Amino acid sequence: MVAQNEDRNRRGLYVFIKRTSPYPSFMAFDATPREVCSTRRSRTNTPLQALTLLNDRAYLEPASALGVRMASKGVAYGFRSATGRKPSPTELNVLNRALSTFKTKYGSRPELAKALGGTPNTAAYTMLGNVILNLDETITKE
User: Higher-confidence residue: 46 or 76?
Assistant: First the structure.
């Protein structure tokens, strides 16, 4: 159950799990069965996980928050916030081209921008935040 008030953004220490209808994101990322103890998780990389990371509201909201910060502090700031390092000139160029593409896309189709946060600029930065948060070095801990 997702709260609709300010509690929605609180961190959860405990998650109530129903065996008959588990949280879809948990299942996509190979949540272990709760009937037995598991000391090690399997590592997989599936198309369903990629779709979950790109489309689930739980992942789009942090991308939107990162996008808001990037709109005021710059693309390099967003990259560094997510990865812990400065982007190379090539990476920064790719991200700026992606931002330009997103601005063009959402500028010409404002109805798509409304679904992501309102203005075409906000939607473009949200999508750029989503790109950064879906980088392999952002989602994979070695």
Answer: 76
